[in-house]
Write a structure and sequence with these properties.
Strand content: 5-15%
Distance between the termini: 23 Å
CATH class of one domain: Alpha Beta
CATH topology of one domain: Rossmann fold
Structural class: alpha/beta
Helix content: 40-55%
Number of helices: 8
Number of strands: 4
Shape: globular
Order of helices and strands: HEHEHEHHEHHH
CATH architecture of one domain: 3-Layer(aba) Sandwich
Largest sheet: 4 strands, parallel
């Protein structure tokens, strides 16, 4: 269900049932001459479109304005739109605080941009990860007061944590492709893997007649195929289903 189309009674029902709330997160970045600049975000959006028909989840409006960087190509005439991570952090923090105040406790964001080493992080995902933590700390301190963690009410914190009932799990960030998926499907920039994925998910964002081998990072795109893209799509969907499986009702 799209959040912007929900009525208040539907929101209250979703909170009661602890349904997952998902933010598609990404950038607008040059992906060669043959791919749409929104590729990173579009992949997340189109995969969530599929999941929306399978399960009860809430999809927030996509956020395309991440820290694309100009590492691949300069922006002039190429379309990369870069917003510095220090500008992203306050926005993300306020957004997460707002979602927590509404009552959501099962919030996720998925990103496919510079996520080959997600555990270490890159500017966009780090800004949103840090914002999530700060939003949770601020929310808990406001709701429970200073010293909330040290109170006797939290004596079972570590046991609750091992059982998954941890307030710091209220907001989670995920790469679209895990290391396990990357071991089975090409992770690249505008090459065979991403081009194949777009062929399967968003064919209107691909024009193979404009593919050029001038840039090293796009040369293997000539080996892309919808069939390979469908394989990557299915691997990612399995991962997303696992992440977004029904969660217990939050306290």
């Amino acid at each position: 269900m799209r959040y912007e189309l929900m009525l208040p009674h539907q929101i209250r029902e979703a909170i009661e049932q602890n349904r997952p709330v998902v933010l598609p997160l990404g950038v607008l970045e040059y992906h060669g001459e043959h791919l749409a600049v929104g590729m990173d975000t579009l992949a997340v959006v189109r995969l969530l479109d599929i999941l929306e028909g399978e399960t009860d989840l809430i999809i927030l409006p996509p956020f395309y304005y991440g820290a694309a960087s100009y590492a691949v190509e300069p922006p002039e005439g190429n379309g990369s739109l870069h917003v510095n991570a220090e500008k992203l952090f306050p926005f993300a923090q306020e957004m997460f605080k707002g979602l927590l105040r509404i009552g959501f406790r099962n919030i996720h964001f998925f990103i496919h941009h510079q996520t080959e080493n997600f555990a270490v992080g890159m500017p966009t995902d780090l800004a949103f990860k840090f914002a999530a933590r700060q939003a949770i700390f601020a929310f808990l301190e406001k709701e429970r007061g200073e010293g909330w963690w040290g109170s006797d009410k939290m004596a079972g914190y570590y046991a609750q944590q091992s059982a998954g009932d941890d307030p710091f799990n209220w907001i989670k960030g995920h790469p679209l492709m895990t290391p396990e998926i990357i071991a089975q499907f090409p992770f690249d920039h505008a090459a065979q893997g991403e081009t194949s994925l777009m062929m399967a998910l968003c064919p209107e964002g691909v024009d193979m007649e404009r593919l050029s081998d001038e840039k090293w990072y796009t040369r293997s795109a000539s080996d892309a195929s919808p069939e390979l893209g469908a394989r990557g799509r299915d691997l990612i969907l399995d991962h997303m289903r696992q992440v977004l499986r029904p969660a217990p009702v939050a306290s």
